[in-house]
Amino acid sequence: MKWTEQQIPRQDGRVAVITGANTGLGFETARRLAERGASVVLAVRDAKKGELAAARIDGDVSVQELDLTSLASVRAAAADLRAAHPQIDLLINNAGVMYTPKQTTRDGFEMQFGTNHLGHFALTGLLLDLMLPVPGSRVVTVSSTGHRIRAAIHFDDLQWERSYSRAGAYGQSRLANLMFTYELQRRLAPHGTTTAVAAHPGVSNTELTRNTPAIFRGPLTWLAPMITQPAAAGALPTLRAATDPSVLGGQYYGPGGIGEVRGLPELVASSPDSYDLTVQQRLWAVSEDLTGVRFPVGTATGTRTGS
């Protein structure tokens, strides 16, 4: 069955927290969930931009300041969200950076790994106990086809201190997003209420590409209409992962077209490396140590998740 925005069920009474929701994929995800009746929280770094975005969305929308490059900000945002909401139905880890020049977060993590993975890992762990009592609650983490490109978890140099590759660091962060989802799902499975799902937008025309090296910008300018899709279309895999009643924990959704570049959302497979249980579990342990966040779910079983 072709899945379109018309298949999004009513979301009345549900609370959805979406990171990076003032623009691009996050904004489109927030807009459609609010239209379906959800109470949507735009968790964004710039509160003023968040308020401007909220004003463009019809429905129950609020703004929460959140800077994923700072664990102190992540903890403060989680505390605010806990005070404002007794339960959370959807946590959509959407915000991200791509191909940034070599730089670090406020806590000294490589920017892409720190923002795309560690910030979301910490936020999820700090909010998960508000989700566990809620049947049908979901953690949706947005990854990328970039998880296949020069991608590995470099435990010997996670922060790229010895050498730096924009593409390699991005691939590591997006591979980490998937490994986090699969490991989280195994830990959630015994609880039977909350599931972890991943999605990717294909190649979408958003601000995420603003750090693309200059040598590629010219070709991308004229190729863009042929190889990209609008943010509204790119948000559909996330929306399906978040709302389709048939979705199972540990699944991964992306565009169904050739090369998963664009098209309507379908169940897709991630790279063989992403299913490595040993690496998933090691990454989890390292992420807990780096962030200082412990999850309210036990050790996972050895069963493989994902498709």
UniProtKB/TrEMBL annotation:
<dbReference type="GO" id="GO:0016491">
    <property type="term" value="F:oxidoreductase activity"/>
</dbReference>
<dbReference type="InterPro" id="IPR002347">
    <property type="entry name" value="SDR_fam"/>
</dbReference>
<protein>
    <submittedName>
        <fullName>NAD(P)-dependent dehydrogenase, short-chain alcohol dehydrogenase family</fullName>
    </submittedName>
</protein>
<comment type="similarity">
    <text>Belongs to the short-chain dehydrogenases/reductases (SDR) family.</text>
</comment>
<dbReference type="Pfam" id="PF00106">
    <property type="entry name" value="adh_short"/>
</dbReference>
<dbReference type="InterPro" id="IPR036291">
    <property type="entry name" value="NAD(P)-bd_dom_sf"/>
</dbReference>
<keyword id="KW-0560">Oxidoreductase</keyword>
